[in-house]
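Help needed: design a sequence for this.
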């Protein structure tokens, strides 16, 4: 299983790179004279190209590396990772040291997954899409548009039975090579482009930069748009030069990259089509090898940093919206968008996905939680 997952992952990383969008134990190998799980000293694996981080505490038994692909210090991921470091080093009394990388191990998520696979990172933040190519197609349920109706609905599902079921599926299907430690968010995604829209027909013939997920592609095609792959780091230029007519993402992400300042990015419609799920991932086999004390510390820090990350996401939604409007962007409010027309296209895609992947029970769990 380990060999199969590794080979499939290599292929997935290549595919992810083109689309623009059983591992070695992660960056916490025991130093000479002690086993990490037994409380021995451990040092971080070298992270080539990483930022200069403080050296691990002298009494550290374990050094963990946590990374995201976002370079902005104002991104919610940044706040979450900093909180993880703060809490874990505090409650462990410095016995666990944490090094934080904000985009410095790679700005593309596929690079971070590769680092986790190679052991150059202990924990990473990633969207779940890469798992579809390594034999876990079930995770694409997170990519279904209009799956969640609100942040409250999203939290209720991810922190409940549905979220636990997805954790079990990922662990089982990957031989515990990937363990979902927590569910984070990058807020709710909206349309932004060269013109105002209020209904699916307004998108006919328009190119739109989207995520590479098949179910996402199907949705935008159903709207009449032409899904296009553009690397996140190249999207500003693509919008500015008219390579794509539009894109979709959350206020904070496109505000920080100033996409709304381009002619093809200044018209925003609050379609709220995707309450996003991001995974805080660790190697489950490595985690299982830690002492009960170390696991308890990590679990407590994960709970604290997840709360922090989500609070920042919700706060920055409003702040980022105010910022893009102040910069001259034109916003079509949620109430003025024909959401029912968009949902009418999304629901059959949800049903087909569930039937094709034996996920009808999980889909009904999510729908029932909205009632």
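Sure. Designed sequence:
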């Amino acid at each position: 299983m380990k060999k199969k997952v590794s080979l499939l992952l290599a292929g997935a990383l290549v595919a992810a790179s083109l689309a623009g969008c059983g591992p070695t134990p992660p960056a916490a190998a025991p130093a000479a004279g002690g086993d990490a799980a037994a409380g021995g000293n451990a040092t971080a694996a070298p992270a080539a190209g990483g930022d200069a981080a403080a050296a691990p505490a002298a009494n550290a038994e374990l050094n963990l590396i946590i990374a995201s692909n976002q370079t902005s210090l104002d991104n919610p991921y940044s706040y979450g990772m900093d909180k993880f470091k703060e809490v874990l080093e505090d409650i462990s009394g410095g016995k666990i040291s944490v090094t934080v990388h904000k985009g410095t191990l790679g700005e593309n998520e596929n690079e971070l997954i590769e680092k986790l696979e190679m052991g150059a990172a202990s924990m990473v933040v990633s969207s779940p899409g890469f798992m579809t190519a390594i034999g876990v197609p079930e995770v694409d349920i997170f990519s279904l548009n209009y799956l969640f109706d609100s942040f409250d609905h999203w939290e209720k599902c991810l922190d409940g039975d549905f979220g636990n079921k997805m954790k079990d599926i990922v662990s089982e299907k990957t031989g515990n090579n990937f363990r979902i430690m927590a569910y984070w968010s990058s807020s709710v995604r909206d349309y932004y482009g060269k013109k105002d829209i209020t209904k699916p027909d307004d998108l006919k013939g328009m190119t739109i930069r989207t995520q590479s997920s098949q179910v996402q592609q199907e949705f935008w095609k159903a709207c009449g748009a032409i899904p296009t792959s553009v690397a996140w780091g190249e999207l500003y230029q693509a919008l500015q030069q008219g390579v794509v007519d539009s894109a979709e993402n959350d206020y904070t992400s496109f505000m920080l990259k100033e996409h709304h300042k381009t002619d093809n990015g200044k018209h925003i419609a609050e379609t709220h089509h995707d309450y996003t799920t991001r995974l805080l991932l660790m190697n489950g086999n490595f985690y299982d090898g830690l002492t009960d004390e170390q696991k308890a510390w990590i679990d407590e820090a994960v709970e604290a940093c997840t709360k922090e990350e989500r609070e920042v996401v919700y706060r920055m939604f409003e702040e980022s919206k105010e910022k893009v409007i102040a910069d001259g962007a034109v916003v079509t409010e949620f109430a003025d968008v024909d959401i029912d027309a968009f949902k009418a296209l999304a629901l059959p895609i949800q049903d087909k996905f569930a039937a094709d992947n034996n996920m009808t029970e999980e889909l009904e769990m999510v729908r029932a939680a909205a009632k």
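The chain has twelve helices and 13 strands.
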